[in-house]
Amino acid sequence: MTRKILIVDDSPISRKMLKSCLPKDEEYELHDAGDGLAGLEKFREVSPDVTFLDLTMPVMDGVEALEEMKKHDSQAVIIVSTADIQVKSIEKVTALGAFLVLKKPPTKENVKDALLKAYEFLKESHGI
Amino acid sequence: MESDYPLISEEEKDILQEIMNIAFGKAAAELAEVINIFVVLNVPYVKVLQAEELPEYLLYEVRDFSNISIVEQNFWGKFKGSAFLVFPAGAGKGLITMLDPDHETSFESGSIEVLEKETLMEIGNILIGACVGKITELLGDVVTYSPPKVVVENKPHDILPNKLFDPEYTAIVMKTLFRFDERNVNGFLFLVTTHESVAWIKQALAEFLERYE
Hints:
The structure holds two protein chains of two kinds. In chain A, 47% of the residues lie in helices and 22% in strands. By secondary structure, chain A is of the alpha/beta class. In chain A, helix 1 links the parallel strand 1 and strand 2. At the A-B interface, helix 1 and helix 4 of A face helix 1 of B.
């Protein structure tokens, strides 16, 4: 099954790093965006199965983008991928409905683990 | 000299920026563990300069502050350079209560100026140490540090370094702007690497990226 993945990060290198950590034994329809606002627009346009969202971004930061994405789809699976690992930041995005928080830099193991949890949730909640 | 030396590419700048982002995030988290503070982070910025342009660049970046306090620390390894943590005047006094909420040390340690200096030194130690430490960890190096030097409340022109490196050399400046939310204090962290680190940084960035190819 092809999964729709959206990666929202202002750093092209960071997007590249995350893409390279996606498990190779699956098929994806990949989308990306370079700031929170562009990410929100893309999110509304493609309805991704899973969104990876950075927090520190220009134009619209990840916290605001997360809020708007959850308003649009309260069941959306949004994995916050961030360097901001302060406890208060993690608590804040968790309260806003982030599925989980992935510490940067990503590794193949923790991306795979996060996606397995996401797919499990999608299967239980959406039957997909 | 500079014209013969390889500068860093746009892609290498992007990687350094992301590494600075990760490193400062780690530093902020470490500071938040020690004191009850939330650090608002911004997107870091990387710039390559001739070392002779550095003083002017630093002065321009802190132009909104009439007086500043600064924590300076040098680091040595393959990654070699200087870190400057810059706060506007008065920030140190505002931060004293965060490290010492009950003012227990105020009578033992003497004047408010001494306490301010100690507070800035402690915050500088944590932020600079954690940030530089994480960068070198990601790039596969270990560095040693000079003791931090603190200058409290002075004109930027008087305390920012004006002869940091040989003026003909290239320096890479990594800048991050942050804000201590509860105190509404803005600050900058500048990391300036020396000319001789550039070749090693390029190699280390290539190896870092190889992990993601």
